[in-house]
């Protein structure tokens, strides 16, 4: 009987060293890994591969990862979270829609593997799923979570949050959007405890409930 793989990861990067390094890392843990250096071929094969996780480099020589994301099939983005790798943190990326995680290069190996495993195998019981816009220079909410030693998984895309909830069991979902957007996404998140994060005090109140 053929052993089931841990999940499928499709990676686009023009850095062959990076691709080989992380291919070996993931394959050693049972993942099926597809890599591509050409953005156009990546877009062509994305539907056929059916990945569980997509990894895009934002700094490609001919077509940027952001442009690839815009051209990527909507069905593919709904079925697989997108991890965007970038050399520098950029607050301007907050306007980019459809990206679940932004990871600086060189990648934090432990964090990268944790994200991939969370979407593929699941079964994580974090205290909090934190859904928020990307802002590398504002960690106030995450600081409070760390202060109260609450385990959390942070995601920057609604579709990715839905995929997370399909396989994981957080105690609560905290949405750090403005009030109008919170009301828009709340009905899409299937969880009994969805909380609007008004400020840091919201997290403090949750921490007291969990202790």
Largest sheet: 5 strands, parallel
CATH topology of the largest domain: Rossmann fold
- The name of the CATH architecture of the largest domain is 3-Layer(aba) Sandwich
Fraction of residues in helices? Answer: 40-55%
Mean pLDDT rating? 89
Pairing-aware structural class of the strands and helices? alpha/beta
Mind telling me the CATH superfamily name of the largest domain? Response regulator
Output the radius of gyration.
Answer: 17 Å
Give the helices and strands as they follow along the chain: EHEHEHHEEHEHEHEHEH
Percent range for β-strand residues: 15-25%
Task: Outline the structure in words.
By secondary structure, the protein is α/β, with parallel strands linked by helices. 40% of the residues lie in helices and 20% in strands. α6 (140-147) packs parallel to α9. The strands form two sheets. It has a five-stranded parallel β-sheet with strand order 2-1-3-4-5, sandwiched between helices. The protein contains nine helices and nine strands. The protein has two domains: 7-120, Response regulator (Rossmann fold), CATH 3.40.50.2300; 128-210, Rossmann fold (3-Layer(aba) Sandwich).
